[in-house]
Amino acid sequence: MNLTTLDLHGKRHHEVDLVVENFIYLNQEECPLLIICGNSQKMISLVVEVLKRVDCVFEEGKGHNYGTVIVRKV
Could you say which of 3.40.50.2300, 3.90.1150.10, 1.10.10.10, 3.30.1370.110 is the CATH number of the domain covering 4-73? Predict the structure, then answer.
């Protein structure tokens, strides 16, 4: 299964809000969506903040999948 993916590597913290929100709304029909945050806890927190604000159902990756977030429903 290939998930529609947003890779945030190379993005700055101040860009995350707009980039994630646009990605979510432009691809909401493609759920589940994958957001790759990398190992930055700050980046993960910023992504989670946006997802909570727009009321998405999501789960943070753990273990081998740490640094990712899967959006189940927009």
Answer: 3.30.1370.110
